[in-house]
Hints:
By secondary structure, chain A is an alpha+beta fold. Chain A has helices at residues 6-22, 109-119, and strands spanning 27-35, 40-48, 54-62, 69-77, 87-88, 131-136, 144-149, 157-160.
Amino acid sequence: MPATNFLEYARGIEGVLDAAVAAGEAALVSIQIDPRSALRGFIAGVLQFGDASELHFREFVDTSLDEPRFMYAYHYQEVDKGRIPAQIIPSACQPGRGENTQTTGGLPQTHRWLDRTCVRRRSCAGQGIFSCKWRQVPSAPGHYFARISDGRNQGVSDITGARRAV
Amino acid sequence: MLLQLWQDWLKRSLREGKLMSVQMVIELREKRGAEPILQAIESYKARLRASIERTQRRLAQFEQQYGVDTAHFLQEMTAEDLEGGDLEYVEWAGEARLLEGLEAELTELEHARYQLP
């Protein structure tokens, strides 16, 4: 059942993250839960993996919407703080959902992990302001990128599929 | 289950503009029981106003940093225009959209009418 208020949603996220930590998949470095109203708020945090790389995440939430997480970002940082391209994953980009989604032969490991930990139980009705198309990188089989478009400026960002197995 | 179905229907109807207004009836044992409810609504409105101010301050920080207003940012700029790239784009655009929602929530409550017998 989807969350009916922001704190319930945030508890759900905390529960999923706690489970990931308990399973030894990652360590939770920090989490910020910032309710702005009963329905809406902001969640930010940092997860650290065994090799000391980090995942910085942000979620803007509106539980009055069918897809509460209306805008969010995941940003991986390597051990040496060199940055893998930041990832904007709007609702319309979820694997296997929506007309714009293409999943020829699988998705990057990071997206599978995010799907498992953050979005698995929620629907993806394409409520995000973006759309995206997944494309396989011709020169690098098994690697993917997503072209993000906000409907006004084509190609707001290209997401390169991170290759980390979490 | 029934409550969830009703909530879904209400959300959908409000979003699609099918409902002009909604009446909510709260039954109390005594008339004086209404006072705490009205106070709770006023407290919530005050909380919303504080959240709106805080969200506006966050937007102002971005606007000051880049020397453009949020409307210009949303219309004209992309993640490549920002020092923080995609992450910063999401934070700025997310705060802007959050503000719209908070203001709509407050407006809804400010237009609510209460009628006591």
